[in-house]
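Deliverable D4.2, example record:
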Amino acid sequence: MQSQDQEVFEKLVEWLKNGDSPYLCTIVEAIGSSPRPVGSMLGCCGEYSVGTLSGGCVEEDLLEKLRMNAIDASTPQLIEYGVSAEENERLGLPCGGRLHILVQQLSPANADWVVDVVEALRARQSMARTTELKTGVTTIQVTEDYVALSLTQDSLTQGLGPKMQMLLVGAGQLAQVLAQLALAMDYEVLVTDTRDDVIAQWQGPEVELLHGLPDDIIARRSSDPKNVIVTLTHDPRIDDMALLEALETSAWYVGALGSIRTTRARLERLAALGVTETQLQRLHAPVGLDIGSKTPWEIAVAIMAEITQLRRKL
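Output generated by the structure prediction step:
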């Protein structure tokens, strides 16, 4: 699955190559409660749109104005919603919320930088988009880390980056339900297993299924900091091989399913194989919050709860 950022920019490329002049709309500030976070984007071209800013009346109002050419965005325009209690009630903004949305109309002359964004996202690179507010001139720059959105009187700088990716080692029942939860929480999900028969019996959601040695899969597909790696097979020959490689990568979360007893034995094996104490401290095992979970769905909830808790502290 593509990230929503990538979906927006992929569509912008298509429209620009057709000679159209689509709009790119970005939430640049949110005061109070907001249906969507700062940095959320929407693309619009005629009757078609991609992405979302609110999913409700704010979005509907903005799209209607764009389709009626009621906003001159040949240079970027800052649109504010929620300036009065009456407007909050009409638009459904919660708790007196206010949204500031930057609307920029693109032309085919912008195609080069939009294509560069798509190519960087496909390569799982982070970048920053800088738009001059007086001219609409936009440049992008590849960055090492994600850049927080900032808005000044002169320019908008917005970080863009790849979707958080989760690699599940083992294609059993727990992986099937965990994949469903992760997809619902906007992760890209990959599943790998060395066992042909297990992959053939996959009944989970539509994700990329990778047959092969887990260390090879991790090295090729899951080595960057936007990755979560979780081993689920209960087979040390598979899980240990995966963990040896995973703990060498910059993946921000590495977890392993198992009981406390199983975990102790695993840590001893990994240490004997040369994994350092510093690397072992990165391993979340037993994986998931201790909520007394027993069923696959309960275990999946515990895993996603721990990952969510830690992700909010990044």
